[in-house]
Automatic annotation (TrEMBL):
<keyword id="KW-1133">Transmembrane helix</keyword>
<feature type="transmembrane region" description="Helical">
    <location>
        <begin position="112"/>
        <end position="132"/>
    </location>
</feature>
<feature type="transmembrane region" description="Helical">
    <location>
        <begin position="164"/>
        <end position="182"/>
    </location>
</feature>
<feature type="transmembrane region" description="Helical">
    <location>
        <begin position="6"/>
        <end position="31"/>
    </location>
</feature>
<keyword id="KW-0472">Membrane</keyword>
<protein>
    <submittedName>
        <fullName>Uncharacterized protein</fullName>
    </submittedName>
</protein>
<feature type="transmembrane region" description="Helical">
    <location>
        <begin position="43"/>
        <end position="62"/>
    </location>
</feature>
<keyword id="KW-0812">Transmembrane</keyword>
<feature type="transmembrane region" description="Helical">
    <location>
        <begin position="138"/>
        <end position="157"/>
    </location>
</feature>
């Protein structure tokens, strides 16, 4: 077993549990039928989290040549992936059979946890990248946009409660981030 296989197993478990949580929650909500008052915002947020998890999972392939790993690196890796798990766990409500569920109200009440987890995740991913690769010698426009755009959008959705703003922003993130990662290729 290679070092990559050994360390990636833990990452795969965390990310797999996050995806499973979203899938199981959607399944339970669908089973509740008319007890659920649907809203687009938490569904879009779940789509963003799924997109992030899949891109992070595939992006880990870049670490396959790593020759050494420290406990500190592994703890930072776990922390950054757990923030994605928290985002996954908070984007949709855990259904209780006897109670009706209003997804719009749920989204509104959990926006700090959901988007706070995503902002913290971005911060931890940046810290991890700097710890492993050092500070980039050249800062491209794309790098600057990614370092500023997503945190600003996530933080704005914590505080701006206008429904149209949240829907447009969530939709923009799906399209823009999806466009950024859709063409990424894994090469062996």
């Amino acid at each position: 077993m290679s070092l990559f296989e050994f360390t990636f197993a833990l990452s795969a478990v965390i990310l797999g549990l996050a995806l499973t949580h979203i899938a199981a929650t959607i399944h339970k909500l669908l089973l509740l039928g008319k007890q659920v008052k649907w809203a687009i915002e938490p569904v879009l947020l779940a789509a963003i989290v799924i997109l992030l998890i899949v891109s992070v999972w595939l992006g880990a392939w870049g670490d396959r040549e790593q020759a050494e790993v420290t406990v500190g690196q592994t703890l930072l890796q776990v922390a950054k992936l757990l923030t994605l798990y928290f985002a996954a766990a908070s984007c949709l409500p855990e259904p209780v059979v006897a109670e009706p569920i209003d997804l719009r109200s749920y989204y509104d009440s959990t926006r700090l946890l959901s988007f706070g987890s995503l902002v913290l995740s971005l911060l931890l991913f940046r810290i991890y990248s700097i710890a492993i690769d050092g500070i980039p010698s050249v800062l491209t426009i794309g790098m600057a946009v990614n370092m500023i755009l997503y945190p600003v959008l996530y933080v704005s959705m914590i505080f701006v409660r206008r429904r149209w703003f949240n829907i447009l922003t969530l939709g923009f993130i799906i399209v823009y981030y999806g466009w950024q990662v859709a063409g990424q290729q894994l090469i062996s």
